[in-house]
Amino acid sequence: MSQPAPINSIIKDNTVQNSMVKVQLKGLNGIRTIAAMAVVIFHIGVELKAFGFESTTRTDLGGFGVSMFFSLSGFLITYLLLIEKARFGNVSIKDFYIRRVLRIWPLYFLYLTLALITMYVYLPESLPGSLAYYLFLGANIPYIFGTTLPLLIHYWSLGVEEQFYLFWPWVIRKSKNILRFLIIFTVVFIVIKLGLRYINATTEYKWPYQAWHVTRFDCMTIGAIGAFFFYHKNPLFLKVVYSVPAQILAWSVVVLMLFNKFHIASVLDSEFLAALTVVMIVNVSTNPKTLVNLDKPVFDFLGKISYGIYVYHAIIIFFTIEWLGFFIQRLPIVPRYMFVFTFIPLVTFLVSYLSYEYFEKRFLRIKSQHARVKSSDTKTWIETQPLNPDPVVLPDTAKVRASQVD
User: Domain extents for the chain?
Assistant: First the structure.
C-alpha cells in the first residue's frame, strides 16, 4: 500500500531545514463543498412552507454538515500547527490570532451588518434582541437558549469555532504530550455529554445538554487526533484509514445523510461522523487508490468559496421568499421543487464568489503575511528563506492542499 513520506522527518532533515518545504493537500475543497451544501439544503428544506409546500423537510443534514466542518477545521489547524512547532520550535500565538481574525472577521461582520439592515427594514421587532452575543462572537449562546436573531441562526457554529481557537494554539504550543491531552479531552468531553443527556432525559434541566451538544469541541479534537496520527504517519492509523472497508463506510454514511437515514446512536452521531470525516480527509488528499476523487475543478471552486456559501445562504433564502415567494408558489409542484433547490444555491454561489474575489481576498493577502506555514488555494508551505533556488517538494502521494478557510 502506497503511503506518504513522513513529513516530520523531512522537516527535521538538516539538508531541508533552510529550504522552503512545500506540503500540498488536495481534494479537501470537495469535503468543504459537501459540508456547505448539506447546510444549505437543510435550511432550504426548513423553509419549504414559505414556497407553498404543505410541510417542511426537516433532516439532520445541517448538523452533520457542521460536524464535518468542525472535524476538518480541527484536522487542518492542528496539522499546520504541528508543522510550525516542529520547524520553528514553537507556535506564534500572535500570528495565529491575526490569521484567524483576518479570515473570519471581515465576512462575519460584513454579513452581520447586512443582516441587521435587513432586519431593521423587514423585521424591526426582532431588534435588538440578543445582538450583543453576535457582536462579541458568542452566537452559540442565543442558539442554545432559543433566542437567535433571524438570518443569524447559522452563526452559532462560527461562535463555537472562535471559542475553540481561543485556547487551541496554546494547547499545541504548551503540551508536552499532545496525543495524551487530545485523547483525555475528547473522552472526558464525551462522558460529560452522555451524563448531561441522561439528565436531559430524566429531569426538567434541558439546557446543559443542549449547550454541550452545540459546543462540539470534541468533533474538532477528533479531527485533531486524526491530524496527529497523520502527521506522525502512524502505520496502524494509515492501514485502517486507507482500507477499502473504512472508505466504503465513510462514503456510505454521506449517502445515508442525504436520505436522512444515518443514525448510530443519536447522542454520538456527530462524533462518529467527525471520525469518518478524518477517513475522507486522509484518503482524498493522500491516497492514490482513494475510492472517491474530489480533486476536481468544480469542487475546488465551491470549496474555495464555501465560507461565503455558509454565511450568505440564509439571507438569500430570505429574499427569495420575500421577493419571489408569491410567484414560486404558483408553479407546479415538480418545477417548484426544481426551481427552489436550484435557484437558491446558484445565487448563493454567485454572491459568495463575488464576495471572495472583491472583498475577502483583500484580507487574505494580509493574512498570508502572518503565516509561518502558508496557506493558499493550492498549497501550504513552511516559510523560510531557501538556500538554493529549487524548493524541496514532497512526492505526489504526500501532497496537501489547505485553502484560505484555514
Answer: 7-13+20-398
